[in-house]
Amino acid sequence: MKHKLGFYFKKLSLTQQVLMIILVMLIFLTLFFTFFLNKNIEITISNQMYSVMDSRQKPILSALEANEPVTFDNDLFRYLSTDSVQTNCMIEDDTIQFLTIPEHSFKNDAFYNFLIVKADQMLQEGVSEMHGTIEVDDGPYYYLLEKCISRGKPVIVASFMDDTYASEFRSSLIDSTVYVMVVAFSLILMILMIWAFSIIHPLNQIRVYISQIKQGKDVELNIKREDEIGEVARELISMKEELSKQQNAKEEMIHNISHDLKTPIATIKSYSESIKDGIYPYGDLESSVDVILNNAQRLEDKVHSLLYLNRIEYLITTDAEGVVTNMKEVVEQVVLNSAVIDPDIRLITDVEEVFFDGLLEGWRVAIENIMENAFRYAKTYIKIVVRENDIRIYNDGPKMPEDRIETLFKPYEKGEGGRFGLGLSIVSKVTKTNHYIVKGYNTDDGVCFRIYRPVTQKKGHKRGKNNVGSRNDWQRDHR
């Protein structure tokens, strides 16, 4: 039942949810006033009535205990006889003697007999005080009986009054209580509604904003808040700008790739047609065929990068939980294959046998792409240092502009010379998939690419010794 109510509640709009909460509060307030507050008010009124009768009864008890004569010649009793709210009497030997003049309309022998019975009960049980209410013909009456010793004998002083005073007190108390509660609830309700709609309105703005973005419209979102809703709005605006930037870069990349593919295809086609006609555009048959082969290799390389960019999505979704890769073997294999790229570049390795989380193929391609980038810019050397949870690949090529470092691994970003960094985008995807971080930064004499995992993050299957130093330590080591 609870889950059904929760499911139904979540299906409602925020406005409906707020109205339902208000309705529940109203029901709770009504039940609270009807069953709890009303009962407590009655208890308070009764206690107040007994307290009033007791305070007016005290002088009589004091006079009786002082053995003063109970006659209307006595100033005290003459004064008490003027009490028009409370009737006081003295019960002694089953006889009632009125100390104040009762209302002329109130004459009820049954009630007087009731008081005499209560007085006898007090004397028998040794009780010093007794109070309560009783229904009489003309309504409820409050009574209070107290025992004292006068002239050496026990005397019961009884006081009673109708509910006129109680009704007035009840009306005053209920009116003031209800008024305060209504005012307080109205203020709380107003504050709640203002707060709720201050949330609902910007959320509706965000919903419309997202809907219009889906339709391809150029819209703006103006929400000036510093809370979580404001943060969401700012992130949405940032996301839209980033997606727009990536979309523009992607379109430009596709245009450039199309142009890059078109050029070698046109060359291959024209050279092939010329050779078929017996014409050798590059002087002789062998040289002309070499041009065709070189352009075919260019096509293969470009298509290979595009296909692998799509394949990396498959590797990301492949279940590689618990799979580890020996990075020493990967680096040694990549270095062996890369040695022939440029014999003039010296390859320096400082590799420990450590294991990284993830599939071997992904890590091999990531290292190959960083090495390819390093060979493109290195002047004299490339150095690879491998430690636990840390790989650094240095080269002494030109330093990167600071704005380029910020966008180095973003997809479709154009690099130096107008080339799009598909290789580094693949590196970023591989590292993020396996919960590592990749960064590039300038060193004193070149550039370094670093793949690492923070040392505070503990992962299983690591077998190498943790020997990760600071950036300055690593830079000092490779000099």
Structure described in brief:
The protein has helices spanning 2-11, 14-65, 75-80, 109-125, 164-214, 228-276, 285-317, 327-338, 360-377, 402-406, 422-433, 471-478; strands spanning 87-92, 95-98, 129-136, 139-150, 153-162, 324-326, 346-351, 355-357, 381-387, 390-395, 437-442, 447-452. It is α+β, with helices and mostly antiparallel strands.
Q: Characteristics of this structure?
A:
alpha+beta; about 15% strand; about 475 residues; rod-shaped; 12 helices; single chain; disordered C terminus; about 55% helix; 5-stranded antiparallel sheet; 5-stranded mixed sheet
Description:
This protein has 479 residues and is of the alpha+beta class. Helix content is 57%, strand content 16%. It has helices at residues 2-11, 14-65, 75-80, 109-125, 164-214, 228-276, 285-317, 327-338, 360-377, 402-406, 422-433, 471-478; strands at residues 87-92, 95-98, 129-136, 139-150, 153-162, 324-326, 346-351, 355-357, 381-387, 390-395, 437-442, 447-452. Strands 2-1-5-4-3 form a 5-stranded antiparallel β-sheet, sandwiched between helices. A hairpin with a 4-residue loop joins strand 11 (437-442) and strand 12 (447-452). Helix 7 runs parallel beside helix 11 (422-433). The relative contact order is 0.06. Residues 457-479 have low confidence and may be disordered.
